[in-house]
Design a protein that fits this description.
12 helices; 70% helix; 0% strand
Length: 269
């Protein structure tokens, strides 16, 4: 990265100026050179992080405007509903695809910093992974997944969901889940545990799901996890449901939200 080379060059320059020009001893000259190197590196990092924040603000603005537009459309549908729920879902998905593709194009502009900012490629991959997931562009999701940084419960849940879609072995999904769940704090594991245990139930491993929920509830008081734990305790896996996790759950594309066709207006409230 250019920032490292520049910082190193300034560090050497600081050492040379102190030792040869000012006649300072070798030990102090090394310390001065190192201090110059750190100062320049921190200064450059601050400058480019500030630039990146502005650029990422452009991506976030596109997303916010797009979501606001959809919310306004849904509000209008409360007064005059569309022809059917399926038609409404189609329109919303097409609108979402439109503004998400604009956001992806905006995120691609960050590539101009790849020689200046360490790990920028992985940060771009992470943003594009999540954006492509929103519009179900799974071919691109699969290409980006190995480079994306997945530390938060949402992105890790996306990875587990995709592994399930690809029919990956349960052992691989378990490895992803256990690694992520170890670093989560209290009450941060609801979506992660909900997704993992749903996969186990779908694959017929209700005992494994029960044990996983028992362990997860030691770090959570989430009501959905409690209800699912109770269902499995009473041997009622058919009543297992993550609907209580709301939009975060349905955003994983493992289930579609249930809608009542008889009362169209209430769907969009």
């Amino acid at each position: 990265m250019f920032t490292y080379f520049i910082s190193f060059a300034f560090g050497i320059g600081g050492y040379a100026a102190a030792h040869f020009a000012a006649g300072i001893g070798n030990g102090w000259s090394v310390a001065i050179g190192f201090a110059v190197l750190i100062a320049v590196q921190l200064g450059l990092s601050w400058y480019f992080m500030k630039k990146l924040k502005v650029e990422m603000g452009g991506v976030q603005s596109i997303m916010a405007e797009g979501q606001k537009s959809i919310q306004a459309k849904v509000a209008r549908w409360q007064i005059r509903p569309p022809g059917s729920i399926a038609e409404a879902q189609r329109i919303i998905f097409e609108d979402t695809c439109s503004f998400v593709k604009r956001a992806i194009a905006e995120a691609d502009k960050l590539k101009k910093y790849r020689l200046w900012v360490p790990m920028i490629d992985r940060q771009i991959a992470t943003a594009k992974f999540q954006l492509n997931w929103m519009i179900k562009n799974f071919k691109e999701v699969d290409a980006l997944m190995p480079r994306a940084i997945m530390l938060d419960p949402v992105s890790v849940s996306m990875k587990m969901a995709r592994f399930y879609m690809l029919d990956k072995p349960t052992e691989e999904i378990t490895k992803v889940y256990e690694k992520a769940s170890r670093r989560l704090r209290y009450n941060e594991n609801a979506l992660l545990a909900g997704c993992y245990t749903w996969i186990l139930v779908k694959r017929g491993d209700t005992d494994g799901a029960f044990k996983a929920l028992t362990a997860a509830l030691k770090k959570s008081d989430n009501e959905t996890l409690k209800k699912n734990h109770q269902c499995l305790m009473n041997n009622r896996p058919a009543q297992f449901s993550n609907s209580g996790l709301g939009d975060q759950w349905y955003a994983l594309h493992l289930e579609e939200p249930r809608m009542r066709a008889r009362q169209q207006r209430s769907v969009f409230r």
